Amino acid sequence: MIVDTAVSNFVSVSKKSLVWRIMRRNMKKYFVFLIFLCLIGAYSSSSNLTVSSQDLALLTKENSSFILLRGNDGNPGDVEISFNFTNGNDETLLEQIDPVKIGPNSNITITVVPLKAGHVDIIAVAPDNTTNTRNAFVRVVVMKSQTLELVSTIIGWIYFAAWSVSFYPQIVDNFRRKSVIGLNFDFLALNIVGFTLYGCYNVALYWIDSIQEDYLSRHPRGIIPVQTNDVFFPIHAVFACAVTIIQCFMFERGMQKVSKGCWGILGAIAIFVVIILILAFTHVLAWLDFLQYCSYVKLGITLIKYMPQAYMNYRRKSTVGWSIGNILLDFTGGSLSIVQMILISYNNDDWSSIFGDPTKFGLGFFSVVFDIFFMLQHYIFYRGNLPHETLAGSSEELRNSPIIPGTPEV
Predict the structure, then answer these.
(1) Sheet with 106-112, side-by-side order of all strands
(2) Helix, strand or coil for residue 45?
(3) 298 with 194: CB under 8 angstroms?
(4) Alpha-carbon distance 340 to 153, whole Å?
(5) Are the C-beta atoms of 387 and 249 separated by less than 8 Å?
(6) What is the pLDDT of residues 129-149, one digit of tens each?
């Protein structure tokens, strides 16, 4: 009991002393400084590995190589590096790569020997935690034929051109007729909203560094999935849709307007976008997630945007005012996009790019199916028909002959 009292008195006196107060005030500074020194020491002694190129494309019957590089770091010894294959469609795609030893400020050429077509990532693996291999990886694509790759590239540019031009037959037809009767306004409203959201995703992922950094942090060995044409297309699509909407105010439209059902859908989309936008501004939701949700809305719009126009054609028993040129070009682009996917899958022996991503393939297929239905309406069901049902406030000519199939007598 006497000893406890003595110790308690000693601590109490010590806390009141000047030395104790100084130590307590500076303890955090000393601790932070010590951690800083440790980090400097760890960094200076770590080895950083990189590669000459992170993308490698080759044919099944040819070898290729990449260079593994090590910087001039503070570790004088050699580091033994092994190689693993990951994210591939087959583990036996390449011959195994033997481990290598690499010294500071040196490089080694690594030979890649393909066994069959496919794709795989080669990653460098170090036996310790002081070697930084984050950027030491190579994405390898092994192709069956260089000709097929060239044909696939050409097809890609053709369907991009077809899709880009597909907006203009409708614009020209509206200008020639000085009327937009026959063009469904619900389709127009859904189309411009969809392309606007799609454009936001592509533009942000292509131009905003912080969005790119977030994407690459989630996909360390991935690439930004947006190219220049992916940015141009939605911007151009929004412009073309805006021109068409302006024509709706300039030319004869009767009493056509956006339906209440469409306004309901657009309102729901607006509420959803505002909610996730607020969540992004308040840092509850990452901006990349906000953009991805916007792209999902675009996918949903693609599933429903053709339905109002198809129903309008059915109700009027005519496709007058709905440009078939738009459909033919859209069908060309959609069909060629599917053909390109099939060619790439065959050339790379990677059918998972189609069946592993059913959303992308399904949406393209869905659009082509609707294009075929529109062509059936135009060339078979209502061929040569003038509308049997006029819109209020319009000066449309009606078909009153019962001889033409699909045209009821009035």
Answers:
(1) 106-112, 64-70, 47-51, 131-135
(2) helix
(3) yes
(4) 8
(5) no
(6) 778 888 889 989 899 988 998
- pLDDT category, 391, cuts 50, 70, 90? low
CA distance linking residue 112 with residue 57, whole number of Å: 11
- Which residue in this structure is represented by tokens 């409203």? 189
5-58 tens-digit pLDDT: 444 554 454 444 544 455 555 555 545 444 544 444 444 446 788 999 888 988
Amino acid of residue 355: F
**Whole-number Å distance between alpha carbons of 65 and 46:** 26
**pTM for this model (two decimals):** 0.74
β-bridge pairing 79-86 and 118-125: antiparallel
For residue 318, give both structure tokens: 């005519």
Token pair recorded at residue 21: 């107060």
pLDDT in tens, 152-179: 999 989 989 999 999 999 999 999 999 9
C-beta separation of 152 from 343 below 8 A: yes
Token code pair at residue 72:
């001039």
d(CA 269, CA 308): 18
Coil, helix or strand at residue 382: coil
Of 374, 325, 394, 388, the residue nearest 173 (C-alpha): 325
Query: At 358, is the secondary structure helix, strand, or coil?
Result: helix
Q: Which residues contact 405 (CB under 8 A, 6 or more apart)?
A: none
Is residue 199 within 8 A of residue 235, CB to CB? The reply is yes
The radius of gyration of the chain's CA atoms, rounded to the nearest angstrom, is 32
Which residue type occupies 92?
Answer: T
The HSE-up count of residue 236 (CA atoms within 13 Å, CB side) is 15
Dihedral sign computed on CA atoms, order 278, 279, 282, 285 = negative
Contact indicator for 115, 93 with CB cutoff of 8 Å: yes
Which residue shows structure tokens 């002959």?
A: 401
In this model, does residue 355 exceed pLDDT 80? Answer: no
**What sign does the CA torsion over 251, 254, 255, 260 have?**
negative
Phi first, then psi, for residue 77 (nearest 5°) are -85, 165
Query: Who contacts 403 (Cβ-Cβ below 8 Å, separation ≥6)?
Result: none
